[in-house]
Amino acid sequence: MIDLRSDTVTRPSPAMREAMAAAEVGDDVYGEDPTVNRLEARSAALFGKEAAVFLPTGTMANLAAFLSQTRPGDSVILSEESHPFHYEAGNMAMFAGLMPITVPDLLGKITPAQVAEKINLIDDPHYSHTTLVSIENTTNRGGGACYTPEETAAIAAVCRSHGLKLHCDGARIFNAAVALDVDPVDYGRHCDTLSFCLSKGLGAPAGSLLVGDRETVHRARRFRKMLGGGMRQAGILAAAGLYALDHHIQELHEDHRRARTFREALEAAGFTFCLPSPTNILYLYVQNGLEAVAALADAGVLMLEHGPILRAVLHRDIDDNALDQAVDICKRVLG
Ligand SMILES: Cc1ncc(COP(=O)(O)O)c(C=O)c1O
């Protein structure tokens, strides 16, 4: 099977497994896992932040960021296409008591003007106060679009002038950094908190980091425990993360190159894509998504169906050979 459903399907390489097997471990809830401590310090430094906390998933990292920067009854401004609004099972309402204020977006990205328009700080007991803005970089439902540091700075400026915090769901922030040739510090400096995933294009089996100032990360660590995310000898996972940060960031270029090749080959054959694909996520128009996805699966290619659109994600477990095969199968089955 050529699995293009998501970059989350990547499996740890033999070298990553060796690093995991050799990891020095301790009890991380006591702060005694040296490998987790190294991963947290490295992650904070990468984004120019004071501290970081290692969590099992991106979903928990976003939730911990929300919980540690808001109070129940507050409102959060975010894109109507964003992952925390769409795909995190309403957890911000359930566990943080937050009211999402969504804005329509272009490619999953929101603008400073949209944020400014939705902020509510009126001292009137009818209304929820806005305390947080959340952006996503790269955007999942926006076809892997990237915010530039300048766009991030412009949203941060609106947040700061109104006393709001800015969180970035950077599940795929390294895809953005690599695609735009940006030092991650230039994203970190504009966000109060930023989360990133090791378990997607970076190829680790699990784990996400939340970076921010010491006090916010301290609160997030407490919320991680409340949510049941305090892991013990988590150094085995952290070792995979350190290996990924050392070896897999630059390789994301290859996923982006293969995404371009995939798109160009299918466009040349008459297919249409519905969003630009600057990184590794593609959305392909088909007549009938359910039929198309089933026919592709029969022929050995897995994609995700969104109505008349199929999602394909390039990742490190798809080499040039698998890519060529996927293109041939799409042309034959969908043509
Ligand atoms: C943009 C974005 N944020 C957050 C997540 C959540 O990550 P996890 O699956 O580790 O909870 C995902 C997962 O696909 C994602 O695409």
Give a verbal description of the structure.
It is a single chain. The chain is of the alpha/beta class. The protein has 2 domains: 12-247, Type I PLP-dependent aspartate aminotransferase-like (Major domain) (Aspartate Aminotransferase, domain 2), CATH 3.40.640; 251-334, Aspartate Aminotransferase, domain 1, CATH 3.90.1150. The protein contains 14 helices and 12 strands. It has helices at 14-21, 34-46, 58-69, 83-86, 91-96, 112-118, 149-161, 173-180, 185-188, 214-226, 235-247, 252-268, 289-299, 320-334; strands at 2-3, 51-55, 75-79, 99-103, 130-136, 165-170, 193-197, 208-212, 281-285, 301-302, 304-306, 309-313. Strands 2-8-7-6-5-3-4 form a 7-stranded mixed beta sheet, sandwiched between helices. The protein has a 3-stranded antiparallel beta sheet with strand order 9-12-11, with helices on one face. Strands 1-10 form a two-stranded parallel sheet. The two termini are 20 Å apart. The model has no long low-confidence stretch (mean pLDDT 98). The structure holds pyridoxal-5'-phosphate (PLP).
Secondary structure layout:
Layout: E1 2-3, H1 14-21, H2 34-46, E2 51-55, H3 58-69, E3 75-79, H4 83-86, H5 91-96, E4 99-103, H6 112-118, E5 130-136, H7 149-161, E6 165-170, H8 173-180, H9 185-188, E7 193-197, E8 208-212, H10 214-226, H11 235-247, H12 252-268, E9 281-285, H13 289-299, E10 301-302, E11 304-306, E12 309-313, H14 320-334
Parallel strand pairs: 1-10, 3-4, 3-5, 5-6, 6-7
Antiparallel strand pairs: 2-8, 7-8, 9-12, 11-12
Residues 8, 57-59, 83, 136, 140, 169, 171, 197, 199, 208 line the site of pyridoxal-5'-phosphate.
